[in-house]
Amino acid sequence: MNKTNGPCDEDLMYKILIKNKKLKSQIRREDKTEESADEGEDADADDEDEDEEDDEYSIQFRAMFWSPRKMGSKNKFNLVSLNGTDQKEKVALHKDLSDLVIYTRSVKFISFCHSRDNQNCYENTSMAEKKARKLMKSSGSSFIHHNQRFLSRIYPAGSRTSSSNYNPQEFWNVGAQLVALNFQSPGLSMDLNNGRFQDNGGCGYVLKPAVLMSRERNFDPNTSYRYLKPIQLVLKVISGSNLPVIKSRNTLDPFVRVEIHGIAFDSRTLTPHWDTDMNFSITVPELCLVRFCVRDQMTLFKSEFVGQYTLPFTSLKKGYRWVPLLSRQGCSLDPASLF
């Protein structure tokens, strides 16, 4: 396998891909001609950026495998990230585990230019959210082109000691395939993550939209594309049905927030009155998620979460629709819904 040509999707059906580092001695035997000259003497494993890798323990993530061509629903595979259990202890990599690392070998990210000239298609990089965000803001187009050729994994910063999450949408906007979240922490980020996978029933991967696969255009999610003809979305929240009452209160004073999450130019939040038209102008609909959030107005400046539902903009259909509501943990609140 060369730098640009790897296995096709059908070859990976029903396979488990092990993402991990690999013994340098094995790398030299398998790929002598392409190994960097500055690796030094043989060691236990690749020296990926340890300062960053220390942050990734105990993080669960869902794999978003972007493919340039449409696949059937059965063409799925899993990717497993294997890490140590003690952040302070450096665990030696066993040869048997190293042998299992084939298509998703972890290497250190240096720069987009370095990856283009030296990285193989079966190698992937991981970076903390702060580094990824800096690259996204300074070189959005380059980040997208990088992710057209290689797998990128983004994970929460180690400073998130309470297991909070970043907004995954900003990294989906540049085509990052593995956007890691703390699954134990419910909230907006997990709502968006679950909504992104609504189209495939929450199983397997979803396809990258064409806007992130074109090599001819230099798309940058940080730039406003006023020359593109936007799509107009008109929504009217007519009513709510069977909304759950918070246990600490006997009454409910509900209101709805409708949020658009996409590129910065498209993202917007409206809190309408019931039975009122809302108008959204959406430039890149393929990247947008629509989130309906019901809250209970407690006081003038305080409200509490009641339920929510998030789905891709491309899943919306015209006409009258019932929107089911989910709890903060993502469980169904049936028969609670919005009309």
Automatic annotation (TrEMBL):
GO terms for biological process: intracellular signal transduction; lipid catabolic process; positive regulation of cytosolic calcium ion concentration involved in egg activation. Residues 24-53 are annotated as: Disordered. InterPro entries: C2_dom, C2_domain_sf, PI-PLC_fam, PLC-like_Pdiesterase_TIM-brl, PLipase_C_Pinositol-sp_Y. It holds the Pfam family PI-PLC-Y. It is an enzyme of class 3 (hydrolase). Residues 36-53 have a biased composition (Acidic residues). It catalyses: a 1,2-diacyl-sn-glycero-3-phospho-(1D-myo-inositol-4,5-bisphosphate) + H2O = 1D-myo-inositol 1,4,5-trisphosphate + a 1,2-diacyl-sn-glycerol + H(+). Residues 217-327 form the C2 domain. GO terms for molecular function: phosphatidylinositol-4,5-bisphosphate phospholipase C activity. GO terms for cellular component: nucleus. The keyword Hydrolase applies. Its cofactor is Ca(2+). The keyword DNA repair does not apply. Residues 97-212 form the PI-PLC Y-box domain. SMART domains: C2 (SM00239), PLCYc (SM00149). Keywords: Calcium, Hydrolase, Lipid degradation, Lipid metabolism. It comes from the Eukaryota. Its EC number is 3.1.4.11. This is Phosphoinositide phospholipase C. It comes from Gambusia affinis. The lineage of its organism: Eukaryota, Metazoa, Chordata, Craniata, Vertebrata.
